Amino acid sequence: MNNHITAAPTTRKSLTLTKEGSEANGDSQKKVLARWLPEMKIPTPLDVKTEVGKYNSPQSRKQKKFWKLGNADFNTDVFDIAKDGELIVQEGNYLYNVKELVKKFGTPLELFFPFIAKDRLDDLLSIFNFYIKISRYKGKFFYHYPMKVNQNKEFILPLVGEGANLEVASYNELYLVKRMWEQENFNPKIKVLCNGPKDQKYLELIDELLRNDLKIIPIIEDLHEYELLKAFRGDVGIRIDLDVSVDSHWDKRINRFGLLPREILRLGKIKNLKILHYHVGSQIEQPKHILDTVKRAMQFYVRLQKINPSLDTLDIGGGMPIPYERTKVISVDNLVRKLIKFMVHFCESKKINHPDIICEWGRYIIAPAQISVFKVISMKNIPKGNARKWYIIDGSFMNDLLDTWAIHQMWHVVPINKLDARKFHRCWFAGLSCDTDDKYIAHGAYLLLPRLEDLPEGENLYVAFLDTGAYQDALASHHCLLSSPAKISLSSGEAKTIRRRESAEEVGKLFGW
Predict the structure, then answer these.
(1) Helix 332-350 and helix 287-307: axis angle, to 10°?
(2) CA distance 373 to 324
(3) In the beta sheet, which residues pair with residue 372?
(4) Do residues 415 and 459 lie in contact, with contact meaning Cβ atoms separated by under 8 Å?
(5) Whether pLDDT at 460 is above 90
(6) Cα 310 to Cα 313: distance, rounded to the nearest angstrom
(7) Do β-strands 356-359 and 313-315 pair in parallel, antiparallel, or remain unpaired?
(8) Residue 375: CB atoms within 10 Å
(9) What is the Cα–Cα distance from 283 to 287, expressed in whole angstroms?
(10) Residue 410 above 80 pLDDT?
(11) Using CA atoms, how far apart are residues 274 and 270, in angstroms rounded to an integer?
């Protein structure tokens, strides 16, 4: 018996099981799949005809291992390879063939999968709540999504629907919250943290939303803000500069955010102080650094709470890493277990109430929910270098994936077709602009990709950059007046256009033409 999932050609009907199988609706999806895999007829969304390869065949396992797909350690557990060597994304019983989506929508193309973001948030909430419960920790856990990571409405609302609170860093971000609050899109219990430098306009909007019954908490960044917020009637937080060094994307020499411990203590009692907040870096590489920072913060928390009994929450900020470099990173489960264990022992030893815990792991939640797809339009030889071929794509790294240039971001890159290739070129990528920095060279190493000369006549090679959901949209630009990629949201087997691909006329209008 062939143990594979067969897509029903051009149908969107619901899952069909045998009569006996239909009685297993209460089972987990995984158990149902294990029992009834040969019987299933899976609807293929968007009328895509495809067939997922044999999950347990040696060839399939070898291909997925090579490309590091189907592996939760690399955030690719929902990715698979069809029998024809094309990239598949699985949402429950829905299948998305990425190449077929490219045929429909063209390239460059950004594909957003809300279910990935929601599943990651659900998992994070479950992990924290599990260890809080079994450890008898008396504080609560709250997740706040930092809007700066990706401000697209289609990215934010699904997370709010799963229980996320919000964190904003500017007046404009808070203005979007105001619009959603006035339209009654939010649960009245939602909480909003306000970080970032605050001018008078930002502070006035915070005050307005507090009067309109939004649970909003400004975080004091400096002494000037402290003076301006003295008359604020709601709760406040304060950000501490812990002066610690961690392995992360951060300027370790100078931190311009927050107040030094001695500066905070000099303030004495702070009206309605609820939150002690810190943020020490992005992409923190070692779990020990995260835990050591929590320990340092809690030492100060005890001192601050003696002066401010209203203090009851620790906000550990962001920093949870993504495996961009295709290497295993921190285990969230193990980290949270150790964090809660420390908090219990520390609080009991200091005889203080267990504080609520907030985290703002935005990149961790949202980055894996988007992939960026480009067409390889040509190839050039590289006379000197670790790579042998330039693959020129129909997009721009400086425009569409700006972190490639800004912080030399590594990316997990896979072809969306010819995943079953056996011959490869050692490649670097070049973008479509005329700038010499518009390239991706994997820190001077190389990427193995299928050879263009092995493609059937008339067929193009397409490549997907994974984990592109964080920051790239807000940082995007129009160098050489290149158009931004189209952006498509894929949910429950349906495709929704979030952003059309810009025409030359539309891009020109941005510059007054």
Answers:
(1) 30
(2) 16
(3) 110, 465
(4) no
(5) yes
(6) 9
(7) parallel
(8) 18
(9) 11
(10) yes
(11) 9
